[in-house]
Amino acid sequence: xxxxxxxxxxxxxxxxxxxxxxxxxxxxxxxxxxxxxxxxxxxxxxxxxxxxxxxxxxxxxxxxxxxxxxxxxxxxxxxxxxxxxxxxxxxxxxxxxxxxxxxxx
Length: 105
Ligand SMILES: [Zn+2]
Fold this sequence. Notes:
This protein is α+β, with helices and mostly antiparallel strands. The protein has one domain. Helix content is 11%, strand content 26%. The protein has one helix at 2-13; strands spanning 21-23, 29-30, 37-40, 46-49, 53-55, 58-62, 79-81, 88-90. The strands form 3 sheets. It has a 3-stranded antiparallel beta sheet with strand order 1-6-5. A 3-stranded antiparallel beta sheet has the order 2-3-4, with no helix packed on it. The longest helix has 12 residues, at 2-13. Residues 82, 84-85, 87, 95, 97, 100, 102 line the site of zinc ion.
């Protein structure tokens, strides 16, 4: 709970240095995707990281490992998870999966 709070706080302030650790609650992490990890921070909002680290203090990533916006590179990109095909899309982008079950009700 505290860790999630930290992540949310960090994303809200966005004045994080690249060397600062962002601790991840493993229960809120999806590692089922190809070579990236998605971290849930509430309300079906996710951030993507390409690398996670583990040591005795816990599981963490760095701000520099998070995927940033294409247009605003200062902002960490926020994703939503399609409840039908379980793929991730940037906020504001509808599901682009041509095989998504939501297209065949
Ligand atoms: Zn979908």
